[in-house]
Design brief:
The chain contains 18 helices and twelve strands. The protein is of the alpha/beta class. It has a six-stranded mixed sheet with strand order 8-9-10-6-11-12, with helices on both faces. It has a four-stranded mixed sheet with strand order 3-7-4-5, covered by helices on one side. It is elongated.
């Protein structure tokens, strides 16, 4: 059996559909709801595992680039629809009670498969794709259609279908009898049906009984009359139906597994292309993340895609941010006022890594992303009612497995508001140990915190601040800054009306 996957370079695609914490923490579930809505089907399972290697990641990027070429998307969509129709026939076969009808439907199933594969093979040759994945698929496809077995399958399915369509049948309803005629009638059964339902014929009684379907088509249910007609036709043309029986039995395993797998997996690219196109129509932008050779992480105009999906409906856009980690830097420590966009920025950074690892475009204007082995997250949670643990205990129990993993290296870690219930002194000590651990494991990441001291002393730590505008209001811009955290204090003064003149008025008992 030929092994091939358009999703994985080593053809070892794995359906790991368990939801990781980051799937919820980064609001990927919300983005998937949007993708599913535009695709009109649930494709979430295809987005829940990453290529195992950096080469696999680049493999997907190249395939997606081919899918975006003019005419390629439409071609693959047409093939996908043909494969969906094939699956529909297979499901319908389980519902029909007529054994003969099942065989006729199998013929339609095989014929549709053959036509779709031949058409795809010929059309792809003109597209001249550049990705390793599409080139290999075309080579396998050409080998398949040039095989003697496939050519015989194609020729035989057409001959039998034409023989069935050419059987002449005519019904005449007279004196409460239905007469069936064969040789003396010209034309096909479908042609007769058109003539039969014309307004100038008095066949209403028969019309009420007979559903006017071709019993040699793909109908799930056929009437008793049609079933009797099929039996008469079979007796009249034993050679045609003998060939049909032999053909169906000898071609039970007609479909190539790599083609069926391609039809299922190509949806990964087609669904995101559909989503990306819709989002661009609403003013959003994407870019293919450039492979980082030096461990630099760079993003320009990065934004939270899940938030953008909500805001564009109101005619708004999220505030984008630029960010970078140089080769000798490991971790961001992000501080700043509450509601200043810190968690949103952390999520956007997580989405950048997530979609880059999937080999898909990322929500930014330009991006350069290293290969990370895994994504790890720890977002703040409330106290657990079920376990009875306090918030700090709950956080530590979730943090422990992340730090006890001895095989951990080259991961991207997102930590959001850890140790908020501990005293500042204790929180700083614990936070410093957490940072030292992940930096020592050569991980990259971001730590969102209210603790100002965590960004000091270590040259591998980059201090980021959520800024405010000239009116001391949050503007959701995130910048590099080693300055003291004056913004938070100013915001609190504004919020609680603690300016000098305001305090004087209060002391006098006057309204502020």
């Amino acid at each position: 059996m030929t092994e091939f996957s358009i999703l994985d370079r080593d053809a070892q695609a794995k359906d790991t559909v368990a939801i990781s914490p980051y799937y919820i923490d980064f609001n990927i579930d919300r983005i998937m709801q949007e993708i599913n809505a535009y695709w009109k089907d649930d494709v979430s399972a295809l987005y829940k595992y990453f290529p195992l290697t950096e080469e696999g990641q680049e493999y997907r990027k190249a395939v997606y680039s081919d899918v975006c070429k003019e005419g390629m998307f439409e071609l693959l969509m047409e093939f996908r629809e043909a494969m969906k129709q094939r699956k529909k026939i297979i499901e319908n076969k389980k519902l029909t009670r007529s054994e003969l009808q099942q065989k006729v439907m199998t013929l339609s199933e095989i014929k549709g498969y053959v036509i779709a594969v031949e058409k795809l093979s010929h059309a792809l040759a003109d597209m001249k794709p550049e990705s390793e994945g599409m080139k290999e698929f075309i080579q396998l496809l050409n080998t398949c259609i040039n095989d003697a077995g496939f050519q015989e399958l194609s020729a035989k399915s057409k001959v039998i279908r034409e023989a069935l369509d050419a059987i002449p049948v005519k019904l005449v309803y007279k004196d409460n009898f239905v007469n069936v005629f064969f040789e003396e009638v010209e034309g096909s059964y479908d042609a007769f049906l058109k003539e039969f339902i014309s307004e100038d014929r008095d066949n209403q009684k028969l019309l009420n009984f007979f559903d006017r379907k071709n019993p040699f088509g793909d109908s799930i249910e056929i009437s008793l009359l049609e079933n009797e007609i099929m039996n008469l036709v079979c007796d009249k043309y034993p050679q045609v139906f003998g060939e049909l029986n032999k053909f169906v039995k000898s071609n039970a395993g007609y479909a190539e597994e790599f083609i069926l797998q391609f039809a299922e997996e190509i949806v990964f690219y087609l669904s995101f292309y559909t989503y990306e196109k819709e989002m661009k129509n609403h003013g959003l932008y994407f870019t293919s993340a450039k492979k980082s050779e030096s461990k630099r992480l760079v993003a320009e105009d990065l934004y939270d895609l899940a938030l953008a999906c909500q805001m564009y409906r109101k005619g708004e856009m999220p505030v984008p941010n630029d960010t970078r980690l140089e080769e000798n830097e490991n971790f961001f420590v992000l501080t700043g006022p509450n509601q200043g966009g810190k968690t949103t920025f952390a999520r956007s950074l997580g989405q950048l890594i997530f979609f880059s690892k999937l080999g898909l475009p990322v929500p930014a204007r330009r991006a350069e992303v290293p290969f990370y082995s895994r994504i790890l997250t720890h977002f703040s949670v409330e106290e657990s009612v079920e376990t009875g643990k306090g918030k700090l205990a709950e956080e530590l129990s979730r943090l422990a497995p992340m730090m006890e993993d001895r095989e951990q290296k080259n991961d991207f870690v997102v930590i959001n508001e850890l140790f908020t219930t501990a005293a500042n002194y204790d929180a700083c000590i614990m936070g410093k140990r957490v940072l030292d651990h992940f930096v020592g494991q050569n991980c990259h990441g971001i730590y969102v915190t209210h603790l100002q001291d965590l960004s000091k002393e270590d040259p591998g730590i980059v201090s980021l601040r959520a800024m405010m505008n000239e009116e001391h209001k949050q503007n959701f811009k995130i910048v590099r800054s080693n300055d003291p955290a004056l913004e938070s204090s100013i915001l609190l003064v504004e919020k609680h009306r603690l300016h000098y003149e305001q305090v004087k008025l209060r002391l006098k008992g006057e309204e502020v």
